[in-house]
Amino acid sequence: MDVTQAKQEHLLALKGDLFGQLMREDPSTIKGAETLMLGEMLTLPQNFGNIFLGETFSSYISVHNDSNQVVKDILVKADLQTSSQRLNLSASNSAVAELKPECCIDDVIHHEVKEIGTHILVCAVSYTTQYGEKLYFRKFFKFQVLKPLDVKTKFYNAETDEVFLEAQIQNITTSPMFMEKVSLEPSMMYNVTELNMVACGEDGESTFGKMSYLQPMDTRQYLYCLKPKPEYAEKAGVIKGVTVIGKLDIVWKTNLGERGRLQTSQLQRMAPGYGDIRLSLEMIPDTVNLEEPFDIICKITNCSERTMDLVLEMCNTRSIHWCGVSGRQLGKLSPAAFLSLPLTLLSSVQGLQSISGLRLTDTFLKRTYEYDDIAQVCVVCPYTSNES
Question: Can you give the residue ranges of the Trafficking protein particle complex subunit 13 C-terminal domain (predicted)?
């Protein structure tokens, strides 16, 4: 018995590999996507097992009169029972007057699946025989709704009030899927720019190439940049407290073209903690010459709820030397107000240097705020020596 069973399993393995080889050799099959089974040898699902969240559940219901008698007042009802609710999917709740022998009543139902877990399709039929007897029967069809995608998000808060969102999307099904659309719908305070295209021609090309297939257990990273709308950009207090960024809208297609769609809940970031005073850079050069002065423009914003009287101190470091008078009065700064401050400095050391050494003191509270590693600048030597 063991030898026979082993031979049968070996034959089944050979047949399975032979079918896979035929699919790969089929010229109408997409190269690299043989498991999609969209060549001339079209294969249908072997069983009604699972459906995925975000897809549309469709079912064809047919009630056939197998008897040789005419039945009357036929009422067909289709309900979908989930873990939290019972939904009526019938197109019509009115009874059919009569159903002759060998005739049938047909109905097609559709439902966008929005819950994970066990679902039960309950089909109930009631009718009256020609003798006036009222009969009733039900049938149950159980299926599982699974999660198709695993979505993870990361937020990066830039000094310029921009927010970068990285969305990692993983296909956790057992078959490939075609990613039709992955977009970010921003909240009312932001405009969004997608960073998933490479400049190529007029329209550009996706960073994932022309074939937008996501294989089982594969992951893709999508990147978006959100900028505050102009009417909110200057309101430091408002932007500081914004945590709701927007939501992702994901559309895909599976093996036989069934479309699925998922929208995440509102994505929230941790609001950056700027403290009482925020110092950011409005302008800084990328590269500067060694021991030559260069200019930067700092933006100082009062993020507190009180007026401040500020004094600026500039402390030299080993490589960075500030030009100008330290201890200068900047004046009073109201809540949510800001001022632009041009400064001049130079570097005495080559390489990538960090700009540090700014100190702001609020004379009202005698409190000093230190700002180091504000930004980095590349320092190069403009002189070249010609050695023979």
Answer: 285-379
